[in-house]
Write a structure and sequence with these properties.
Order of helices and strands of chain B: HHEHHHHEEEHHHHHHHHHHE
Shape of chain A: extended
Number of domains of chain B: 1
Shape of chain B: globular
Oligomer: heterodimer
Number of helices of chain B: 16
Largest interface: A-B, 45 and 68 residues
CATH architecture of the largest domain in chain A: 3-Layer(aba) Sandwich
């Protein structure tokens, strides 16, 4: 009888074991299934990421150009220096092994450790301490620890030499990166803005057009195995970087430079506590030709405070590094970076009278010849006290034109009352004050205006007080008057171009609307021009050879008291446009809280506007046309007569219309005062020729002409045997108010006869 | 058809009422209780059932069990292919020869096949005769490996012996087989005592203490190698064999309970154990260190999905799953062949277990049955633990996947074991057709 010999109970137990295993395998199968279904997509992505290395190809940021393709901002190659702590450890092990082999005596083996050698060497070349490098080198598992960024070529070469000298190829590395470079440091700092360490624009145009400038980064995808070896891989791909567009701005470097020069001058002269700003604009297109704020900062080093901010910080009394210190530092930086012309508000004051006048002339509630009487103040319904004119004694009987030229408040209040609140508000809106101008700069501030306007509000608004606008909004409205009534959009973008100069996108000039008629503007421009060339309040804006329309303004800062709690803080400003017969350029200079003496716009702003226009108008190709009076005062460019026969020199003097004196009895000119190339006034200029043995000798003491009127100063200097060169307002003889505000050389200096004394005139009669 | 008597020495059936310990019978004649009577009746009924079942079988010398052979060859071939696919990147990195592991694997597979076929010529009697030398030899090797200078250490674990020209081998692999042989011999030799559950009949003495000593000698020496997984597997194989050899379940439960308590205690005492548990529960605690292999293995499994990325297309074998030809090869199989491939591997092992069970069940005697079952259990247990580790179902511990993991001598030993199983299969009882 055949039978299974293994006991059935053993067999049953075996079967149980097998069943348990079957169950275990079932569980494990489910576990695998759970992972493969539940985590499939997630893990697949991780696995793909692990094997592929995505190398970024950084798109090159576009350059920024001025309107004439002068390069303003570009990129330069700099180096990132980094060490490989792991490489250092390996080299150190090799060194110790070599040292042990030689019994610690070999001269070829360095006696100091690798990290010490590297720390010492790098600290001598780069701006980094030995301790810092040692600290970085201590992170021994890492392959890449940055020692310094933005290392310039010179230092990078020194690092390379150091690597070569000690054979540190596996310990120290250099990587090429780029840094944003601004060719003109402080120039147009606020408008260009700057980029952060990651290359994104933080302020100004760099921020506004960050997307277009930065372009599209590319990628290079390669497969690397876990041992960091490159491997053939079917998904390998290369996506080209698209470099950013180059930005061509409407800024004209030459005009920008001149505006900044004048702003810097008034910033220093006036001691403005709250900075100064200026804008120059093409009246017909709204293109910003120049826009600047002073004090400013260096675009290549934007995080460092400028002098005045650093002074505030140093005198704050906070300990360096304390929380308050850092908070103040940050606050001062942001204040410094702020583009005053766009992001800050001010009360436009009397410059707004142009706008009030435009409204009233358009609505024909006034004509230039209408007669008014100014008693020095005016009672307005709804206000218990009289509202004063800046001239407390009153302007007496004046026409509207003269009233505006003299900046008479009662005249403006009167015509505004005639216009009425509703029309005033609708024109105020029409001039664009209640909307953003749309300038392509970040952070444009919005106007603060009466939510519901009363009679008294109307009266104060008529002369530009009790509301706040940005300088750019104010100049945009002025442009509407200058260009015949059209409200344009101020802008900085001229075009985007690629590296080959192809235009990708160019700015389409946009006229928003016509606000007032061309006739109204013409009437108003003539009145304003007369205020400059005649005896108006804007005399200091006069530019010989050009007809300039201008209006000055001085506004009270009603929301801020000075340190004594007094209402003395002012904003002095001037707006101007020229040439009056066909306005091309409008300019605004605003001085916030002048502290040195005069606070009036006619003094802290108008002369600088004139100086600006004097340079810029010829540059823009606007032809000068002089009046007879102006021609008489024209200056002659003096030749160098040295070596000429004295007869010839005397003949030449007759042609150019200059007086002369001959010293000595030689036949040839051996020396002359003033030197060749000097400018001499036609009628009063005198040249001293030295002949024979005679040489120039200092014999004349320069008289003090400060504070003297034009005629008095002229007489004093010429009688002393000196020549005179006049700066500042050019129509100094047409009014009695202009006085000398500076002279050079200073009084009591002893000079040779015929030396040119430069004097600057300015009207100091404090017209608002 | 030729029939043969079992090789087992003739002994009365354990349930035979005449079998009593003579001393006990003389001094204390045990009275037959009602309980005993019921047990006798139950036993008689079961015996009758077994007799009827047994009558359907005839013992024939037919030659080896073909399904088992096919399963072994399938696993071996599958293992060589996957081993090559998983290893070539690491091989080219480590040895600058992408065929390095493949050539070794192939070589040892061939040597293993030869060893397997040689085993077919060893009769069961011969294998049994080898039990004592094998066990003593294994102990000797385990002692030898602990001697510095002979044993090769890798880290803290010292578990390899170098054979010049061949490589290294782990004595613990041989020790497992030796212990299986020893337990099979011992349990079958003292089967009546082990299965006599009456008080004082020796079930505890022989079933627990005797088996325990055989296991503990080997397990203890392996533990001294700091070979936790090896110790664990040896203990588990022993427990399974004891269970099959009819050691009382309650004893096994108590032993299991004590062992579990000790294990838990040891884990919580040692910082090393705690770290392992913590990393098991959340491998992302240390993604670049202790959790790295587990995480990368999971990534490999998960990214395979149902159908896999295709044979040879694994990304994870390129240096992410560390040593992909070794313990974590299952993750590469899952990645390349997906759930289908994983199911194939698991299915093959399960089929192997099933066929092994059939061979054991139909074995000519208890000894060969235990021997076959022990060997088969060792293989599937290792496979199950390996897959459990790779899927992070249990804490990570070094357990290789039989047939797949690259391991030189261990493959030869494995194939030898398969040869033993096949050898036994020749003496199987076959169901009457």
């Amino acid at each position: 009888m055949a039978k299974l010999t293994v006991d059935h109970r053993v067999r049953r137990r075996s079967a149980i074991v097998i069943a348990i295993f079957a169950a275990v395998f079932l569980v494990l199968s489910l576990r695998v299934l759970a992972i493969q279904i539940g985590n499939y997509e997630e893990y697949q992505e991780i696995v793909n990421d692990q094997i592929t290395r995505e190398s970024k190809i950084t798109a090159e940021r576009g350059d920024i150009y001025d309107t004439n393709m002068e390069l303003l901002a570009t990129n330069v190659t700099v180096w990132r220096v980094f060490i490989s702590p792991r490489g250092i450890v390996e080299a150190e092990e090799a060194r110790l092994a070599a040292l042990a082999e030689s019994g610690g005596t070999a001269e070829s083996v360095s006696q100091i450790t690798q990290s010490e050698l590297i720390a010492k060497g790098l600290s001598e070349i780069l701006d980094v301490t030995v301790e810092r490098v040692l600290e970085l080198a201590a992170d021994v598992t890492k392959l890449d620890k940055t020692v310094a960024r933005n290392v310039e070529d010179e230092e990078a070469d020194a690092v390379r030499a150091f690597i070569a000298e000690y054979g540190l190829e596996t310990q120290i590395y250099l990587e090429a990166t780029t840094r944003r470079a601004y060719n003109y440091d402080n120039l147009a700092a606020h408008v260009l803005g700057f980029t952060g360490t990651d290359g994104t624009g933080l302020f100004g145009l760099e921020k506004e057009y960050d997307e277009q400038l930065s372009g599209q980064d590319g990628y290079y995808i390669i497969a690397r195995d876990g041992y960091a070896r490159e491997m053939p891989f079917k998904y390998q791909s290369y996506i080209e970087a698209e470099d950013g567009y180059n930005l061509v701005t409407t800024i004209d470097l030459r005009i920008q430079y001149e505006l900044e020069r004048q702003l810097e001058a008034t910033y220093i002269d006036s001691g403005a506590a709250n900075r100064v700003c200026g804008i120059a604009m093409d009246v017909n297109t709204g293109a910003i030709l120049a826009i600047a704020t002073k004090g400013d900062f260096d675009l290549n080093d934007p995080w460092t405070l400028n002098e005045s901010s650093a002074y505030v910080l140093a005198n704050s009394g906070y300990a360096e590094g304390s929380e308050e210190y850092n908070a103040l530092l940050s606050e001062l930086r942001y204040a410094m970076w702020n583009n005053k012309a766009v992001t800050e508000l001010y009360e436009p004051g009397s410059t707004f009278k142009i706008i009030t006048s435009a409204m009233c002339l358009e609505e024909q509630v006034v004509s230039p010849t209408d007669s008014f009487y100014c008693a020095g103040s005016l009672m307005v319904e709804g206000w218990s006290k009289p509202i004063h004119c800046h001239k407390k004694t009153g302007h007496g009987h004046v026409s509207f034109a003269v009233g505006l030229q003299q900046s008479c408040n009662p005249v403006l209040m009167t015509i505004a009352q005639r216009l009425g609140i509703d029309k005033f508000v609708s024109y105020f809106n029409a001039f664009g004050y209640m909307e953003k101008t749309g300038i392509d700069l970040p952070g444009e501030a919005s106007t603060i205006f009466h939510s519901s306007m009363g009679n008294v509000d109307l009266a104060t608004a008529s002369f530009g007080q009790n509301f706040k606008v940005t300088p750019i909004a104010q100049l945009t409205a002025i442009c509407a008057v200058a260009n015949g009534g059209y409200l344009v959009t101020p802008h900085l973008l001229k075009a985007f171009v690629d590296d080959d100069g192809n235009v990708i996108e160019s700015y389409e000039d946009s006229v928003r609307r016509q606000v007032v008629s061309t006739e109204t503007c013409r009437t108003l421009i003539d009145i304003l021009e007369e205020g400059v060339s005649g005896d108006g309040g804007a005399k200091n804006a006069y530019v010989a050879g050009y007809r300039v329309a201008a209006k000055t303004g001085t506004s009270q800062k009603r929301d801020k008291m000075d340190e004594n709690g007094q209402d003395t803080l002012r904003v002095g400003s001037t707006v101007a446009f020229a040439p009056a017969e066909d306005p091309q350029i409008a300019v605004l200079i605003m001085v916030d809280e002048p502290m040195n003496g005069s606070v009036y716009g006619s003094i802290v702003a108008a002369p600088y506007v004139a100086n600006f226009l004097e340079v810029v108008l010829p540059y823009m190709g606007v032809e000068a046309s002089y009046t007879e009076e102006e021609i008489a005062k024209l200056e002659v460019n003096l030749l160098d007569y040295t070596g000429w026969l004295i007869e010839d020199a005397i003949t030449s003097m007759g042609y150019v219309g200059l007086d002369y004196t001959v010293v000595g009895d030689g036949t040839k000119v051996t020396a002359q005062i003033p030197a060749g190339g000097s400018q001499l006034a036609k009628n009063t200029g005198r040249v001293i020729f030295y002949t024979g043995e005679e040489t120039p000798a200092a014999t004349i003491t320069v008289p003090d002409v400060m504070g003297k009127s034009a005629s008095a100063a002229n007489k004093l200097l010429i009688d002393a045997g000196l020549n005179v060169c006049i700066e500042g307002t050019q129509n100094y003889q047409s009014g009695a108010g202009a006085v000398v505000v500076s002279q050079s050389p200073a009084a009591d200096t002893v000079v040779t006869p015929g030396t040119i004394v430069t004097v600057e005139f300015r009207y100091m009669d404090g017209t608002d | 058809m030729q029939t043969r008597q079992p090789q087992q020495k003739t002994r009365p059936a354990p349930s035979d009422p005449s079998v009593r310990t003579p001393v006990r019978q003389a001094n204390h004649p045990a009275p037959l209780t009602r309980k005993d009577l019921r047990a006798q009746q139950k036993t008689a009924a079961l015996e009758e059932k077994q007799r009827r079942e047994d009558e359907q079988y005839v013992r024939v010398l037919t030659g080896i069990d073909r399904p088992f052979l096919i399963l072994v060859l399938a696993l071996l071939a599958f293992g060589v292919v996957m081993g090559f696919s998983a290893s070539y990147s690491y091989a080219s990195y480590k040895y600058d020869d992408s065929l390095y592991f493949f050539k070794r694997h192939l070589l040892f597979a061939v040597v293993g096949l030869i060893a397997m076929f040689l085993c077919l010529y060893i009769p069961i009697r011969g294998i049994r005769w080898l039990t004592a030398p094998a066990y003593i030899g294994a102990i000797g090797l385990l002692v030898l490996v602990l001697i510095p200078g002979i044993g090769v250490a890798e880290g803290e674990a010292q578990r390899w012996i170098a054979i010049p020209g061949v490589g290294t081998f782990q004595p613990s692999e041989i020790a497992k087989l030796a212990m299986i042989m020893a337990l099979a011999w011992y349990i079958s030799r003292y089967q009546e005592k082990i299965s006599d559950y009456r008080r004082g009949a020796g079930s505890f003495r022989y079933g627990v203490i005797g088996c325990g000593i055989i296991m503990a000698l080997i397990a203890g020496l392996v533990a001294l190698e700091h070979h936790i997984s090896g110790t664990l597997i040896i203990a588990m194989i022993a427990v399974v064999m004891m269970f099959m050899g009819r050691v009382r379940v309650r004893y096994l439960l108590i032993i299991g309970g004590i062992l579990a308590a000790v294990a838990v205690f040891l884990i919580f005492v040692s910082g090393y154990g705690q770290t392992r548990i913590a990393v098991w529960l959340d491998p992302w605690l240390d993604p670049r260190g202790k959790g790295f292999q587990t995480i990368q293995g999971l990534y490999a499994i998960g990214s395979g999905g149902i159908f896999g990325v295709g044979l040879g297309n694994s990304f994870q074998k390129y240096g992410f799953v560390s040593q992909p030809q070794n313990d974590f090869i299952f993750s590469i199989i899952c990645e390349e062949l997906g759930f289908i491939g994983a199911l194939a591997v698991i299915g093959l092992f399960l089929a192997l277990a099933w066929r092994g069970y059939i061979i054991a069940r139909n074995a000519p005697d208890l000894y060969s049955s235990l021997l076959v079952f022990g060997i088969v259990i060792q293989v599937v247990l290792q496979a199950a633990l390996n897959i459990a580790v790779v899927t992070n179902t249990i804490p990570n511990t070094g357990i290789s996947l039989p047939f797949f993991s690259s391991g030189g001598t261990s493959l030869v030993i494995l194939m030898t074991e398969m040869g033993i199983v096949l050898s036994v299969s020749r003496y199987s009882y076959q169901k009457r057709s």
